[in-house]
């Protein structure tokens, strides 16, 4: 069985890219190929212009120092304190003792754990353990941070705090983040780009803004599920998706005024997805699709993706 099959993935500098899929889709294998813990049978892996698939031994180990990794179940050393766990990553890279102490203090302040430096993992909450994992992953000043289901073992409130931290690190440090998840909340909260993975392949991929505007996009449908009827007697039911400034514009009110029609909002919402404002609504317009052709063209002219549900 092929775990990852013909995947073409490009993550831009400073981007937060989410790979979404169910268990067994190939997400973890893909992530392990990025840092060469799994060597692909074919194809290439390049990080910051360095082709990792050509490296072995010491050269590969040095290249991996530029790639941080945080894990679903934290992977902390139980016999070491919080400070000791973070310092371990610096010991591996041969960082001098004085520099290690300074860097550990800096990192614990960055993730909000200065007061827990001498605690052991067993004394920490799940969220605190993941913050230690993030600090350790950042120790060698990586260019790229890989996240393997980093929030799936956490409760919703703690998940939100970890996502806020990752987004803050992305913005403050210019850190590129590639994360895998099965949680749509993670993509909605911090990802600027995303891909849906199934059976080792990408079903669709692109920036969140692009995917929201793509007809038939699974991501758009899953980000904004519409719990509303798709049929209404005597009406044209349409799904309207907008992003950017148009999400807060009075498009529906303009539609009603321009065409002197009664527009019913059957469902929908406007939300902030990472840095993108987006809205999706299911509307009912009186009459059939032919009678509403101009109204639908007006919506498309305003930059909306319009799909006729019935």
TrEMBL record:
What Gene Ontology molecular function terms does this protein carry? Answer: ATP binding
Name the UniProt key words of this record, in alphabetical order.
Amino-acid transport, ATP-binding, Cell membrane, Membrane, Nucleotide-binding, Translocase, Transport
Q: Where is the ABC transporter domain?
A: 1-224
Return the protein name: Methionine import ATP-binding protein MetN
- Whose protein is this, by species? Actinoplanes ianthinogenes
